[in-house]
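ARCHIVE CARD
SHELF: 3
SLOT: left
DATA:
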Amino acid sequence: MNCSGKHTAMLAACALREWPLESYLDPAHPLQQLIRTAVEEAAGEKVAAVGTDGCGAPLMAISLTGLARAFRSYVLAEPGTPERRVADAMRAHPEYVAGTRRHDTWLMRELPGTLAKVGAEAVQGLALPDGRALALKIEDGGGRALGPVLARALRMAGVTAPVIDRVGRVPLLGGGREVGEVLPVF
């Protein structure tokens, strides 16, 4: 389960602070309130709504601008701060963020200092080491377009590297052979 680490960390934080374990997913739980505060501080805006992620955890809605600001804040955080430690851990071990065959891992491995994470329903956050950041959402939630759109956005930001071509390449198959590809239109 790709959310198991998140749940493990939440339960460990509750155990450390002697908070109830049974209700850790309740948005009113002290842990979830702490998470909400951290999200709001990183995003520079209030959480607009709270829903439920596919794994049962509270899902705190912020704008795409807020999401980009949050990624930027973690990349530019002072060394040794909790935010920077999270960013550094993700960048040092991107396979724990996204496995070995996804564009988050490729980008963090091949563009040193980059922080990237895809989210549910085709949401992507990314910050480059110089603080440039982006967040995007494919409106229908279909992930197939995410790589090509992300690659185009990075090219528009002046990022050039072979990994961008790999991220942006989504072939269309017909009868088991390639008949086209997904291309972004801006």
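SLOT: right
DATA:
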Amino acid sequence: MPDWIITEGLTPYEDALAFMEARVDAIAAGKAEECIWLLEHPPLYTAGTSAKPDDLTDPNRFPVYAARRGGQYTYHGPGQRVVYVMLDLNKRGRDMRKFVEQLEHWIIATLACFNLRGEIREGRVGVWVTRPEKPTLADGRMREDKIAAIGIRLRKWVSFHGISINHDPDLSHFDGIVPCGIRDYGVTSLTDLGLPVSMEDLDVALRQEFDRRFGD
């Protein structure tokens, strides 16, 4: 099984990138084990390879980093569980689509541990929850908010970057971007949904469901 690391406090983004770059190279060379790294960052925005300049609506609010992962703009900050996933797809089947689906279902199963139904939407990256207590949209659709994001990069079929789940971040910090380039929808968190879940509870659920879906 992969090394499972949980880092307390806030990890600078540059330090996380340096660690991932070195670890992925070592995994690809057969010199290190796979790794799952759980952490939090100080407030920042990251731009994926598909990021559009107009989606950075407040460029001076927080530092902005070019992440070189797939996807568009996303926010990281305190109260958000970031999970960097360094897995060797050479050993797990070289199927990027299947891998992303595994990540999606990992998040959904983790949320289900707290009786929360996460869902996937065609054309919208990440995991979403319906908000029946909010007014419906103008076209009659029920409102949905994003609770988790996914952004992956591969090098020699070893993955890095990963997923993030909103535990209790300051949701106003998302206002400086169009999250993942998706307009007309909001963001939410476990706390915003009224769930009495600690970060430790979330970590336990993540580990439990990871072992069920990615274990040998």
